Protein 1
Amino acid sequence: MKTRGAVITEAPGTYKVVELELAGPRQNEIMVKMFASGLCHSDDHLAKGDHAYSHLPICGGHEGSGIVVEVGPHTDGWEVGDHVIFSFLAGCGRCRWCAKGLQNLCDRGATIMSGSRPDDPESFRLSMDGTPVAQMCGLGTFSEYSTVHVDSAVKVDKDLPLDKLCLLGCGVGTGWGAAVNSAEVYPGHTVIVMGIGGIGINAVQGAAHAGAAHIIAVDPVEFKRTTALELGATHAVATMEEATEIARSFTNGQGADSAIVTVGVTTGEHVAQAFSSIRKAGTVVVTGLGKGTDIGIPVSLLELTLYQKRIQGSLFGASAPSADIPWMVELYRSGKLELDKLITTTYTLDNIAQGYIDMHEGKNIRGVVLFD
């Protein structure tokens, strides 16, 4: 069938809305009419060329929700009309990592940068004028319709707002899990969150939910600092120097229990600043992405060893999407997780470029594309 989607044909490049041909679902696949898609910084990294995708052109978008319009043959448990949230990381449920509860590290991730079907690297669901088009994370949520593997979809109740729930497929789980899972925030902890965008604001929420006594949000944009204070931060400052001083004032000069780095374009210097802000046996959690070619973190190896500090990477907040997305749905339903206030501005598919301009200008916590 025909669909319209936002595609980049070269990197660096810009998203352009074009007509695409979409293949119908095979076994264990569903076709979904998209309802909403979050504008995540990772898709901008793709457009800027920070990360090399193995196939271009590619349809962007990996944080989405929608309604099933077609189910592939012999695909049990799914039917037309089901409401779904996409997980940008598929979980097969059978590999070593899924079996250990580390579904975010599923072996399916090996194909995430190809945009093809996970079981056939030469097979693409989208095409443009006969040329195969990849799907960002196998999803391509910047398209009016998308065909995806069921391992990338989580069914949700039909009474819930899909425009809000789309955020659970990446930004919310990544930030929330960075605090709750990766930083292992406990009641009474002092936590610094560096960067208050679509990930950082949810790290603030996660730290608050875990019972942190002091949550220090760091961002140069006043609007983002104000939002952080509304959603659980106890302090909000413009620089890491200020945050570190505040953390030390609560910890007998020791520093924060953890610092979570969610800066849009993360550098080694950001990680080093976070490293300097934590106490002995403290943890730096890194969720932000930098350029794939950037190497090195300027930290003291002596301090790393003698102070027993930890630098911890965190992919999708170290979560298990098939379990944690439904859990976060229930937290939202019960009022313990805020989603509505995370969406600053909504856009049409044709206005997606403006959404990323607004992101770079610090105007949004999260922009969301709404489809007709």
Protein 2
Amino acid sequence: MCYTPIDQRHRHTGNTKQIVGGVVLGPAAGLVICQYSDDTAFYLFGCDAQWKSQSDTWHEELEDAKAQAEFEYEGTSKTWRLPGEL
């Protein structure tokens, strides 16, 4: 659906902790919002520098996923890109 690199335009708020395998992850290098073709929900993925998913959250609406991203990384509401955009 959309993505944004996390860079100097953003502030990691620390409002949430992503824990995977008992380890607290650091800030994501990028965020991606996806929707599977057989699902009505949206998924917010926190990715590493190679865009490999490190964490995810489930959201009923696209705007909910975007709001969660803004809650975790201030500034994302202004930097979302569509697939294929550089």
